[in-house]
Write a structure and sequence with these properties.
This protein is an alpha/beta fold. It has 12 helices and 8 strands. The strands form 2 sheets. A 4-stranded parallel β-sheet has the order 2-1-3-4, with helices on both faces. A 4-stranded parallel β-sheet has the order 6-5-7-8, sandwiched between helices.
Length: 358
């Protein structure tokens, strides 16, 4: 096979995983927290979030939709490939997917994680997952593209989503003041400090601020109004004595005054999985109602055409580098060594996982 995605014969989407029914929730939570000594009582408490949705995480369908959209875009560009899913904490596990790839004759596979930003949980741990799968299933080599928070299609999709939500809120509140609360998953302060090899302007938090600034500026231009905004966080799960990134979106909503409404823009997530469905669509919506504020939640990028096309651009450029057609990345999202942190141990918290928990 020789085309624009050569030498790769398949694409792996590496993700977190999530339960599909109630009796899978606790086993999933045990997998996600293995080795940290967290009692079942604590896991059961967190698991109740899933029960609000029938014990089913939305992440599986979201990832399947992305898989299908990527496969369709690759075929449209003349390089059809098997696009497969491999998860860290629930089926299909990445090692099982790797075995299936080997059995199907695939030897060199390009991998893409479902996290856009640099942090241990969002990038380096996926490299470790792939390393482990390759050790367990010899014969398959994965080459992972880096975090894609600077990808133009990612920005475009978030801009479109914000513009649509602000317009929807404006229809409800007229010309009254509003504020945009950009939202991402909180992580421990220590993980943030080490999330990009110690370069302050490239840390996890700084990456989100850069995205928020760009999205807000371009959405403001499209709307013809200057949007007030700030970055907030959700899904803190660490022990109280360990500092995590703040402010929590619910705390911040309770502090806001002089506003008629807010838009929550989940730039830290690429799909509507549990952190969005529970933390934003349930908790933050309730916080806004308690504060007397109208609330809209912007869409995640999902399978927005610009986002999917941008991911394929990224894969094709990685392939060109692998073939030697390019001497190095033109897209700054590429090259895991440039885009991932180098921390290989996760010691910041022994609480449930801190990033994209299904």
């Amino acid at each position: 096979m020789s085309d624009a995605l050569s030498p790769y014969t398949a694409v792996l989407i590496a993700s977190y995983g999530g339960p599909r029914k109630s009796d899978e929730v606790l086993p999933f939570m045990r997998n996600a927290t293995a080795g940290r000594g967290i009692p079942d009582e604590r896991l059961i408490e967190v698991s109740r979030h899933y029960e609000l949705f029938g014990g089913r995480s939305p992440i599986n369908e979201q990832n399947e939709a992305l898989r299908d959209a990527l496969a369709a875009e690759l075929e449209r560009r003349g390089c059809p490939r098997d696009v497969v899913l491999g998860n860290r904490n629930w089926t299909p596990y990445v090692a099982d997917t790797t075995a299936a790839l080997r059995d199907a004759g695939h030897a060199r596979v390009v991998a893409l994680a479902t996290s856009a930003y640099s942090s241990y949980s969002g990038c380096r741990q996926y490299l470790e997952d792939l390393d482990g799968a390759m050790a367990k299933v010899p014969g398959v080599v994965f080459e992972k593209v880096g975090p894609f928070w600077r990808l133009p299609g990612f920005l475009e999709a978030n801009i479109d989503a914000l513009v649509a939500s602000v317009r929807k809120l404006r229809a409800r509140i007229g010309g009254e003041p509003l504020r945009v609360l950009f939202v991402t998953h909180s992580i421990p302060d220590a993980m943030n400090e080490r999330s990009y090899d110690g370069v302050p302007e490239r840390r996890y938090e700084a990456q989100h601020l850069a995205v928020a600034e760009e999205v807000a500026a371009r959405a403001s231009k499209a709307l013809g109004e200057e949007l007030a905004w700030e970055l907030t966080f959700c899904s803190r799960s660490g022990a109280p004595h360990i500092p995590w990134l703040e402010p929590d979106i619910n705390d911040r909503i309770g502090e806001l005054t002089g506003l008629a409404g807010i838009v929550a823009a989940p730039i830290g997530f690429i799909s509507d999985h549990m952190e969005v469905a529970y933390d934003l669509d349930t908790q933050a919506r309730e916080s806004a109602a308690e504060a007397g504020l109208k609330y809209e939640r912007a869409a995640t990028v999902g399978t927005h055409p610009a986002f999917v096309a941008g991911l394929v651009d990224l894969l094709l450029e990685q392939a060109a580098i692998a073939r030697g057609d390019l001497s190095g990345p033109q897209n700054p999202c590429l090259a895991a060594a440039d885009g991932c942190c180098t921390i290989r141990t996760r010691k910041e918290t022994n609480e449930p996982p801190a990033h994209h928990a299904g």
